[in-house]
Specification:
The chain has 148 residues and is an alpha+beta fold. It has a domain of 67 residues. Helix content is 35%, strand content 17%. It is built from 3 helices and 4 strands; from the N terminus they run H-E-E-E-H-H-E. The protein has a 4-stranded antiparallel beta sheet with strand order 3-2-1-4. Helix 2 packs across helix 3. It starts with 53 loop residues before the first helix and ends with a strand.
Length: 148
């Protein structure tokens, strides 16, 4: 049976709800001398369940933040980078660079590009000298080079 006032489940035979103190009318006559009151039982504290997805949300938030940061850095590099494109009859190459680093090179046809070597030389001699030497060498070989 449930308490008509608070709705809590009542043990059989109680005369008063131990949770709210409301007299229970269970069809029995009350004893002489008025209602018999029992000492209210200690109500068990309710602890809300822990959120199981909160750690996952934090991890996904951190991963999302890292991805966003990588995208922003890539956009900044692309927007601030320069490009040297050299084309000849057999193929072409394009080198993408900033003032401080050579970060990519692409080729078509028989063109070749060794990014590791370009980056190593850029650290040793500077980006401007490497790009200038690359352009001069390609033009001396008959290529047409443009800088953007």
């Amino acid at each position: 049976m449930n308490c008509r006032n608070c709705g809590n489940l009542l043990q059989q035979g109680v005369m008063v709800c131990p949770y709210c103190g409301t007299p229970v009318n269970n069809g029995m006559q009350q004893p002489m001398g008025g209602p018999m009151y029992q000492q209210p039982m200690m109500q068990q504290q309710y602890a809300p369940p822990k959120k199981s997805g909160s750690a996952l949300k934090i991890i996904l938030g951190v991963i999302g933040g890292i991805i966003l940061l990588v995208i922003v850095v890539a956009v900044v590099i692309v927007l601030t980078s320069k490009k040297l494109k050299c084309s000849a009859a057999g193929g072409s190459f394009t080198v993408y660079y900033t003032d401080s680093n050579i970060w990519a090179c692409t080729t078509t046809g028989t063109g070749t590009c060794d990014l590791d070597l370009l980056q190593s030389n850029a650290k040793t001699y500077g980006v401007d000298k490497v790009i200038s030497l690359l352009k001069t060498t390609a033009e001396n070989s008959g290529a047409v080079c443009t800088s953007e």
